[in-house]
């Protein structure tokens, strides 16, 4: 067909549109460059350009526009829809007047922080760390980088243009599997969802190693932000000749894993000291192959940020058998104690204790006593005879569960009688009762109780620390010996995952995972979700699917392993190709650096032949170890304990006392049965606090509300309802003289325990809600 004048116009229009779009992108890039440059040099605590608000992770903002007197006038300034059904836990960062968020199918998006207008989109980054990213800039402000972990790698994106920086590492990638005390091809899990911490020209990383026997070690590592070269490494499981080696069996570094920082890293920028909270060694519930204190598991480590040299440490759990990882951010505060000013650090634990030290020497501010604790009856186990107990401040969580503590609201009288009898007959000798070979064991707080990531904040100069906490008991099954499982073995991922699917998922998703009228097919799950995203959806729920909040990480991984590989063929799982992703808007790149989307290691690697989160491959040749034993976290019954289930606690560490403690919302199901101030179950994890210099605390809550508390009294001064649930840490910032509060709001909304407490609203707006005072 010959072109007519009327047919040429659309061609010209398309050309004009492309030119116009290019000009807008150039203009946007110029705006980012200007805004980032002007942001440099601003006073600490007046911006939110790092995860947790700043290097000290205090979530404290020194802004004075929003006060106790006007907080009730906050209104929605703008909102940014994520335009997908993902529950994002992302802590936005703001540099100048540019906000960076995760949205639109795990894409990194740059937004105008005053309007929510998209500036650029780097599309399709499945496997990116879900909690946040890091920001670095050169001294002359000409080089700005967004740094993140994705699958097995570290990558960087130009903060101005949104494009991958391919001069970093090996064509844009630094492989986190390299440089560990394991062959890289055997490392199948290493990336942490929590971002690293920037110091000078270094990015310092923790890791998430999994919970299995023979999991990777949690070495702490620093990399040059320009070259990607490793600058230093600290072995959390010491090698021969290193301090702490004597607290393990010989050559434990070759086969013990964990002892990792998967939680939050805090930096004292002035002194150049990093504070790392570390987790338990693996395997969690049985430690016969790791006799000893197990340094540096379950420690607060003070490390020289430039050299990786250990300055001091404190171990809060010796020879952990409870999965009592330290994960929440250590809080740096100035306090007055015995007439002297002390620069202190406070660390909250899953065990419900708050430990306080001189941050430079590690000396406890109040005495910490080693007390005798119950001992294990499991064959081969040598539980440690004592554990540390702070004499002050008092604990923020309940640490015992007796028959008198059984919930009076959510059970029938018959159920309550059964539970009272069960708890009375359990292995239940108080805090630090080790798992048993003969009885179920009560652990209180349980493995998901106390303080978790995101849940601590501070007013640094006033010595005030705030903690979100939840009371969630574990009922740990008997520890038993099992034969080493292959992937298809009786206790392997294939069998365990298939059983979980059959009992919980098959009725909706179909016997062959083909889907139904009420649930999608799962045959191509590996193209849509990585393990972390899958586990997040399982525990939060999605659409009409209820939340399986009590499902352990090991069982979530077993289910995922079976769904993506029911016939044990070990396929590669790279996710959908970058070329297959098509988004509208200012997309400047897709898929990150070449090769960064691959989540698979060597499909023939020995580690991948063994199923489940606990099993792991055999020990290396020459290692003599007792038979492996197994248990589980026992997290299926959070409602057994009476309310409150979640709370916010305020500490004055000048005196070592609790100022106040208030529940985090009300469980609506329990409220109908007469409960008051119950706190929402699961309300004390996966959320955060913002502390303001005007005396406010902003908290996003499990019940889909944002609350402003009076920091002095705990009184709720303002509450607003979100359109959906909320997870992740909020942020607060100022642009052009106006303050903004941004809250991630894309998770399913659950208003109470049990099926009657679930409230999902298909089609409701999901995204980032931004509040401000009216102009």
TrEMBL record:
<dbReference type="InterPro" id="IPR009056">
    <property type="entry name" value="Cyt_c-like_dom"/>
</dbReference>
<keyword id="KW-0479">Metal-binding</keyword>
<dbReference type="GO" id="GO:0046872">
    <property type="term" value="F:metal ion binding"/>
</dbReference>
<dbReference type="GO" id="GO:0020037">
    <property type="term" value="F:heme binding"/>
</dbReference>
<keyword id="KW-0349">Heme</keyword>
<dbReference type="InterPro" id="IPR036909">
    <property type="entry name" value="Cyt_c-like_dom_sf"/>
</dbReference>
<keyword id="KW-0560">Oxidoreductase</keyword>
<dbReference type="InterPro" id="IPR002372">
    <property type="entry name" value="PQQ_rpt_dom"/>
</dbReference>
<keyword id="KW-0732">Signal</keyword>
<comment type="similarity">
    <text>Belongs to the bacterial PQQ dehydrogenase family.</text>
</comment>
<protein>
    <submittedName>
        <fullName>Pyrroloquinoline quinone-dependent dehydrogenase</fullName>
    </submittedName>
</protein>
<dbReference type="InterPro" id="IPR018391">
    <property type="entry name" value="PQQ_b-propeller_rpt"/>
</dbReference>
<feature type="signal peptide">
    <location>
        <begin position="1"/>
        <end position="39"/>
    </location>
</feature>
<feature type="compositionally biased region" description="Polar residues">
    <location>
        <begin position="429"/>
        <end position="439"/>
    </location>
</feature>
<dbReference type="GO" id="GO:0009055">
    <property type="term" value="F:electron transfer activity"/>
</dbReference>
<feature type="region of interest" description="Disordered">
    <location>
        <begin position="429"/>
        <end position="455"/>
    </location>
</feature>
<dbReference type="InterPro" id="IPR011047">
    <property type="entry name" value="Quinoprotein_ADH-like_sf"/>
</dbReference>
<dbReference type="GO" id="GO:0016491">
    <property type="term" value="F:oxidoreductase activity"/>
</dbReference>
<keyword id="KW-0408">Iron</keyword>
<dbReference type="Pfam" id="PF01011">
    <property type="entry name" value="PQQ"/>
</dbReference>
<feature type="domain" description="Cytochrome c">
    <location>
        <begin position="492"/>
        <end position="568"/>
    </location>
</feature>
<dbReference type="Pfam" id="PF13442">
    <property type="entry name" value="Cytochrome_CBB3"/>
</dbReference>
């Amino acid at each position: 067909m010959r072109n007519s004048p009327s047919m040429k116009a659309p061609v010209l229009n398309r050309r004009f549109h492309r030119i116009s779009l290019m000009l807008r992108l150039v203009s946007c890039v110029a705006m980012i460059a200007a805004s980032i440059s002007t942001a440099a040099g601003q006073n600490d605590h007046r911006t939110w350009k790092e995860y947790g608000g700043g290097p000290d992770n205090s979530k404290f903002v020194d802004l004075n526009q929003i006060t106790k007197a006007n907080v009730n006038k906050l209104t929605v300034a703008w909102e940014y829809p994520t335009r997908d059904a993902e529950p994002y836990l992302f802590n936005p960062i703001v540099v100048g007047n540019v906000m960076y968020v995760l949205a639109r199918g795990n894409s990194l998006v740059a937004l105008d922080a005053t309007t929510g207008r998209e500036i650029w989109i780097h599309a399709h980054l499945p496997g990116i760390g879900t909690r946040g990213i890091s920001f670095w800039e050169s001294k002359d402000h000409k080089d700005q980088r967004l740094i993140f972990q994705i699958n097995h790698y570290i990558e960087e994106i130009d903060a101005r243009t949104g494009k991958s920086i391919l001069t970093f590492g090996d064509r844009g990638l630094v492989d986190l599997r390299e440089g560990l005390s394991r062959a890289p091809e055997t490392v199948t899990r290493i990336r942490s969802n929590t971002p690293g911490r920037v110091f000078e020209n270094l990015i310092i990383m923790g890791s998430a190693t999994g919970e299995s026997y023979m999991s990777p070690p949690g070495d702490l590592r620093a990399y040059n932000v320009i070259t990607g070269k490793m600058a230093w490494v600290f072995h959390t499981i010491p090698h021969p000749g290193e301090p702490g080696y004597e607290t393990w069996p010989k050559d434990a570094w070759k086969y013990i894993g964990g002892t990792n920082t998967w939680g939050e890293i805090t930096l004292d920028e002035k002194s150049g000291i990093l504070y790392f909270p570390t987790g338990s060694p693996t395997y969690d519930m049985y430690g016969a192959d790791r006799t000893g204190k197990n340094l540096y598991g379950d420690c607060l480590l003070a490390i020289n940020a430039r050299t990786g040299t250990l300055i001091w440490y404190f171990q809060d759990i010796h020879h952990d058998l409870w999965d009592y990882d330290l994960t929440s951010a250590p809080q740096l505060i100035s306090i007055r104690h015995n007439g002297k000013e002390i620069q202190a650090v406070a660390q909250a634990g899953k065990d419900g204790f708050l430990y306080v030290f001189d941050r430079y020497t590690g000396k406890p501010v109040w005495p910490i006593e080693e007390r005798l604790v119950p001992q294990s009856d499991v064959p081969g186990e040598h539980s440690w005879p004592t554990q540390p107990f702070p004499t002050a401040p008092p604990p923020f969580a309940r640490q015992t569960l007796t028959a008198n503590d059984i919930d009076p609201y959510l059970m029938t009288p018959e159920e309550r009688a059964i539970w009272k009898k069960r708890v009375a007959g359990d292995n239940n000798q108080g805090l630090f009762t080790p798992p048993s070979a003969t009885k179920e064991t009560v652990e209180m707080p349980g493995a998901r109780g106390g303080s978790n990531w995101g849940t601590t904040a501070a007013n640094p100069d006033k010595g005030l620390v705030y903690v979100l906490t939840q009371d969630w008991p574990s009922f740990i099954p008997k520890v038993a010996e099992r034969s080493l499982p292959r992937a298809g073995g009786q206790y392997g991922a294939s069998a365990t995952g298939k059983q979980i699917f059959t009992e919980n998922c098959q009725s909706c998703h179909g016997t062959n995972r083909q889907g139904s009228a009420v649930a999608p097919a799962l045959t191509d799950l590996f193209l849509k979700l990585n393990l972390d995203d899958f586990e997040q959806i399982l525990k939060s729920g999605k659409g009409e699917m209820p939340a399986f909040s009590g499902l352990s990480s090991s069982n979530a991984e077993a289910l995922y392993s079976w769904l993506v590989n029911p016939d044990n063929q070990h396929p590669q799982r790279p996710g959908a190709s970058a070329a297959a992703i098509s988004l509208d808007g200012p997309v400047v790149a897709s898929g990150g650096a070449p090769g960064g989307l691959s989540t698979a290691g060597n499909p023939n690697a020995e580690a991948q032949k063994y199923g489940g989160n606990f099993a792991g491959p055999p020990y290396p040749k020459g290692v003599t170890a007792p038979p492996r034993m197994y248990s589980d976290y026992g997290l299926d019954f959070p409602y057994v304990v009476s309310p409150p289930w979640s709370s916010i606690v305020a500490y004055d560490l000048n005196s070592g006392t609790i100022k106040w403690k208030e529940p985090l919302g009300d469980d609506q199901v329990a409220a109908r049965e007469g409960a008051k101030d119950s706190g929402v179950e699961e309300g004390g994890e996966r959320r955060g606090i913002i502390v303001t210099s005007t005396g406010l605390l902003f908290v996003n809550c499990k019940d889909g509300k944002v609350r402003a508390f009076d920091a002095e009294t705990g009184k709720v001064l303002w509450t607003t309802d979100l359109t959906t649930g909320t997870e992740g840490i909020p942020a607060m910032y100022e642009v052009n003289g106006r303050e903004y509060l941004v809250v991630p709001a894309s998770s399913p909304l659950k208003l109470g325990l049990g099926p009657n407490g679930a409230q999902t609203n298909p089609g409701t707006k999901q995204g980032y809600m931004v509040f401000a005072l009216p102009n």
